[in-house]
Amino acid sequence: MRYETFIAFRYLFALRKQSFISVISLFAVCGVAIGVGALIVVIGVMNGFSTDLRDKILGVNSHILVTSLRGGIKDYTKLADETAKVPGVIGVTPFIYSEVMLSTRTGVKGVVLRGIDPLTSDSVLSLSKDMISGDARSIENQGDFPGIIIGSELAKRLGLTQGSEVNLLSPSGRTSSAGFAPKIRRFVVGGVFRTGMFEYDSSLGYVSIAAARQLLGFNGDIVSGLEISVDDVYNVEKISKDIRDKVGSFTVYVRHWQEMNANLFAALELEKKAMFIILAMIVLVGSFSIVTTLVMLVIQKTKDIAVLMAMGANSTSIRRIFMLQGTLIGLAGTLFGFMIGVPVSLLLKKYQFIKLPSNVYPVDYLPVRLEALDMIAIGGAAFLLCFLATIYPARRAAALSPSEALRYE
């Protein structure tokens, strides 16, 4: 800004009778600050919700899933060795998947049964971290019976604790003269896990691969597929392609987590964008307050503007003065918005004082994650809206004619 423009700016905004304009400017700053603060909190919650949900899903499920197109995988050891050689792969573990009935003296519940290898599962699954009683190796035999690890909600519903005995009913049974009889085997609860997602905690159980084979009647050394973890969860598309090329001699189907959860994360991303647009309207309302402030200022300072123009100030200098005034209001509102939104988000993240019903939402608290790119986008969008709001009143002030403004003075 040139020195003459700076002197003119001080002349206009250091005059008396500024109280009315100051009140309007304060409302404009508050409007922008509330909008920016709300944007930061909401976008932080949306990021946290999406990230936390992704982590929980990838903790129970693998990054990449390799299954057979012919039912099960027989020569899975060789396939696992070949898969582990693919760049980016950090863990491979076999699994068996089925749906069975779990019965106790207090009730019956359908569960998703997963047979896992406790020696290799830690490199892919987060089961060891999710345990609240027992440990992942408790799926090995518990005395005379094999062990099973169940979710906390399932344990609560059926009144089960570590050491409780349960019966698993497999759909693969036998036909007798009395009709079809399901295969039943007794298990001992070796541990309880909690992921924080009601869907998993209420319907998932882990057993060893050997116990799952016996219960389901699998013949030979066969598994349902392989679960794979990678070093970069956002690079699964390329790693999946490399796995397909590497194990092309096997008849397998390779899928990654983005494909299997595409609809869920696309909906979350759409919701995030929609919330950004909706809450940006609050900032837009604040920018309209800036327009009102500057228009009122032009009306109140018509005589002073005319004096400045008569003394040699050109229309460009006058326009710069009012654009600077509006820009300062927008900058102050944006900064105050960050001073409101960031501390609130950090407090919400640390203390988690907003709880969610776990049987309704996939998480039981309100997660928050602040990302630098989003903060830059919010600040830039708010500042741009405020700057655009200065154009009309600034052009109106610059279009004043000194002779017309001073005619009746």
Write the layout of secondary structure elements.
Blueprint: H1 3-13, H2 19-60, E1 64-68, H3 76-84, E2 89-103, E3 108-116, H4 127-130, E4 131-133, E5 147-151, H5 152-158, E6 165-176, E7 179-193, H6 198-201, E8 204-208, H7 209-216, E9 225-230, H8 236-246, E10 252-256, H9 257-260, H10 262-300, H11 302-310, H12 315-351, H13 372-389, H14 391-398, H15 402-405
Parallel strand pairs: 3-8, 5-7
Antiparallel strand pairs: 1-9, 1-10, 2-3, 2-6, 2-9, 4-7, 5-8, 6-7
Helix pairs in contact: 1-12, 2-10, 2-12, 2-13, 10-12, 10-13, 10-14, 12-13, 12-14
Structural notes for this entry:
There is one protein chain. This protein is an alpha+beta fold and 409 residues long. It contains 15 helices and 10 strands. A 6-stranded mixed beta barrel has the order 2-3-8-5-7-6. Strand 2 (89-103) and strand 3 (108-116) form a beta hairpin. The radius of gyration is 33 Å and the shape is elongated. 37% of the residues are buried.
Radius of gyration: 33 Å
Secondary-structure element series: HHEHEEHEEHEEHEHEHEHHHHHHH
Low-confidence parts? none
Give a short account of the largest sheet. 6 strands, mixed, barrel
Helix content percent band: 40-55%
SS-based class? alpha+beta
Supply the key terms.
six-stranded mixed β-barrel; 409 residues; alpha+beta; 10 strands; elongated
Quick structural summary:
With 409 residues, the chain is α+β, with helices and mostly antiparallel strands. It contains 15 helices and 10 strands. The protein folds into 2 domains: 197 residues, no CATH class; 180 residues, no CATH class.
